[in-house]
Amino acid sequence: MAKNKATISCYVDIQNVCSFPQYANDFVSFAKSQGDLIIQKVYYNSNCKNQVNIVKKLKSLGYHCKDVPCPLKNSADNQLISDLIEDIEGNESPDKIILVSGDGDFQSIVSILKKLKKYVIVVAQYGNLKQELKDSANEFYFLEKLPQLEKLKNQTETTSFSTKFDWDDAVKCLLDCIKTVENKSATLSYLGRMIRQSHLFPKGCKKFPCICKSDGRNFSTLKSFVKAVSQEGLVVMKDEKIFIPEA
After folding, report:
1. Got the DSSP string for 12-68?
2. Residue 20: is it exposed, middle or buried by C-beta count within 10 angstroms (0-12/13-18/19+)?
3. Any idea which architecture 7-158 has in CATH?
4. Which fold has domain 164-243?
5. Where are the domains of the chain?
6. Nearest alpha-carbon partner for 95 in 153, 144, 36
7. Per residue in 201-232, pLDDT tens?
């Protein structure tokens, strides 16, 4: 059974990342590449005219913009954290959190989220990032780099069309090929030829396909794939031979 996509919630501290509108579309593409985007909130202060102008554009792009006009320091940050906690405790608690800020004050909440088994990605702009926040996240990206990430992703998807091989299909294909060998053991080169002849092998694929596992790991060579299968105890690699272990 295919694993459901992770659910994603995004929280943007616009005061800390004022260049965000320039990359708003790239950010949505990036967030959606991580899973199903269910929440995208932006926090701003309407008493700041520059932030009001920024928000107009973001609303037109589908962002939920929350005005926090309180003059007290960190009022928007506190509202963001409050909403984040409420969302985490809600019926649709997200699997991944994307925090767009470089403010070190968020380091504590990031640490708490990780203890709750949430995966946290921090996105910040150049020149406005606290190292402790970066270090606390599971992943980190600079906002200005997102367009390049999307461009590279699109290039990869174009060049790898019809070259992805589902893990379960690849494992079945491998085991079936080994079983066709008379002595039930085979070399990598032999398996490579036999796998290409299987009806499970991706059509139109000229090079060895990228084998994708549900945990996110990818295997671009037959050797790395077979080694991973052997680590699960399904096959044994010994003296350049691959065989199925006896039950």
Report:
1. EETTT-TTGGGGHHHHHHHHHHHSEEEEEEEEE-TTSHHHHHHHHHHHHTT-EEEE-
2. buried
3. 3-Layer(aba) Sandwich (3.40)
4. Arc Repressor Mutant, subunit A (1.10.10)
5. 7-158, 164-243
6. 36
7. 877 666 777 787 777 778 878 888 888 899 98
